[in-house]
Amino acid sequence: MRGYVYAQNGELEHAETEMREALRMLAAKRASLYSSQVTVELADVLHRRGSSEEAAALLEDVLGGLSPSGARCTRQPRTGCSASSPRTPARPSGPRSTTYAR
């Protein structure tokens, strides 16, 4: 929480330190949901401090290699992912029609 407050106040160095400590504590407790939230906030701080590549790597880890279709992906170095199951369109192609019951 302190890291978030520091980030909101523009104290990015303190924010980074606090968020990294929070991640260590959360990892020890195996609190993955909260770890993901802190990681996203840390990525924002890192990006704002000019460490965009590290921020992007953290976000890739949080996303867990999911593809847009929801299929799990096999991580490929520097090229994204390749779907481990066939990709299906997220939306049907063509005009949309909706039928309502009366």
UniProtKB/TrEMBL annotation:
<feature type="region of interest" description="Disordered">
    <location>
        <begin position="66"/>
        <end position="102"/>
    </location>
</feature>
<dbReference type="InterPro" id="IPR011990">
    <property type="entry name" value="TPR-like_helical_dom_sf"/>
</dbReference>
<dbReference type="InterPro" id="IPR011717">
    <property type="entry name" value="TPR-4"/>
</dbReference>
<protein>
    <recommendedName>
        <fullName>Tetratricopeptide repeat protein</fullName>
    </recommendedName>
</protein>
<dbReference type="Pfam" id="PF07721">
    <property type="entry name" value="TPR_4"/>
</dbReference>
<dbReference type="GO" id="GO:0042802">
    <property type="term" value="F:identical protein binding"/>
</dbReference>
<feature type="compositionally biased region" description="Low complexity">
    <location>
        <begin position="82"/>
        <end position="102"/>
    </location>
</feature>
